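Co-fold these.
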Amino acid sequence: MSTLTFHAISDADIAAARKRHPKAFGDPFVTTLKAASWAFIVVYLIWSLGFFEIGKLLNASDRAWALMTRMVIWQDMAGWQYANIYKGIAQTIAMAFLGTFLGTILALGLAFFAARNTMPVGVIRHGVRRLLDVFRGIDQIVWGLVFVRAVGLGPLAGVLAIFISDTGNLAKLYSEAIENIDRKQVEGVRATGADTGRIIRYGYLPQILPVFISLSLYSFESSTRSATILGLVGAGGIGMIIIERFRAGLFDQVAFVVLNVLVVIAIIDWGSGLIRKRFIGERGH
Amino acid sequence: MASITTNGPDNGADRDPVSVFEGHRAQMIRDRMVINVTLGVLFVAFLAWSVWISRFTPDRLATGIPRIFEYFGTVMPALQWDVLFDARNEAGRFPAGSIGYWYNDFWKYLRLIWETILMALTATILGTGLAVVLSFLAARNCTPYPWVGALARRFLEFCRGVPEILFALILVFAVGIGPLAGVLAITIHATGALGKLFSEVNENASMRPVDGMKAVGGSWFEQMRYGILPQVLPNFTSYALWRFEINVRASAVVGFVGAGGIGAELSHTISFYSDDRVTAVLLLVVLTVTIIDLLSERARHALIGKESLK
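Predicted complex below.
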């Protein structure tokens, strides 16, 4: 009578199995490639951290600690000029709203020139598209700096910066929406002998308007976020107050302002979510 | 017809179904009008408030807009076709109107752009690594303890809520001027953004492999490593590549507050010169961003394509 014995799998068994089914243990080429890329990432990371002088972090601990404590411990809260802070936040929202509004209008016009089905002339279409690429390709804060240089410090530069970059973003998205519409409705309107204006009004707009509103709302949200930092280069809004007080070493006030901005942005996100649900339904975008 | 009694003051012809329908329709149109007019008035009021608050007045526009065109006129390069490709002359200078003259500091710009790309790459790798760890803690189905999950989610929210340039501003103060502050700032923001995306991917992963790992006695780490990670790794890679594109853009502007990269040169050029140097740097930045976008998009498509073929 033989007894049934259980034993753990030995290394020899694994080696035998590996020999019998080499592919089951991974393609050696792929394994090597994976290992090599991991090694590359690790080596790169170590090298680049050296390149960026990560050692500075060790010397920074005192300063960083002082900064942190001064951000957390709020002092002399009575003299923080709250009116100024909330005026700055209001200005940021106003800049974002105005910039997005103007951007929406221009984008609405340009989108029809950038969409394949409404602009058959290739030269104009590509010209408009490249222009939009430039608007989008340059960061909003760079536009802010450029407009500060052109028209001076203040919210006007910020509005223009938001206007330009929103135009670039929105016109591209709008033109994609126009390219995706249902042709039948347009043909139906055209068949009644409508002129171009009416074809756009009754053939295109009813189809793309919900998408437009949704995209514009998103754009307003993201512009509010970016408008908070436009002030760092002098283009108006709360950013100017942040950098002013940061330069003055009032870190507790900076922390307070940033917290306020985060709350305001959360409220705007929530509000525009409500509007989007109300007008476009759950499905819209 | 006294047998018809109504409970309202209206009777007779008004009870006819057509007029009931018409009345109802008119009422609906009126209601809608009221809502639309109210919203329209609110919108216009908000717009007017915005115009007032941001001082977007016609007189400021009238003085501002011509200056914009004037400014863009001064920063355009004055290239001349006949000397466009001319080399340095005897004095060691490029003739005015040539590309060499326009891009006199080309190698300096290139070195800074290289630094910018390295900053973005390092920040992407660090941010991805941190985000992977935090995403397992933050995902509702993976988190070892619910309070750890809630804490991790709040932390990620904070990291992505504060713009990177603000982090950069603070870090420049803490660690000094230079690319390190930029790398750390972008890492923090990327961690927040990627952590959220990664944890959503984790929440959509199948829990069966995890149950399997649990059944053979795997620890939490082993459950995540062998249960979840193989499912989500392709998505993680694709998101990380996409983040790299965004980080390149970000690292090009953190220099505005002294955090390294081409941004410092960009802001210096724009603030202090009003000539073709501005367009020279801007053009290089746009070109770099576009090339990185194209390469990364191709890589992402290759990655996703390969996955869907499997």
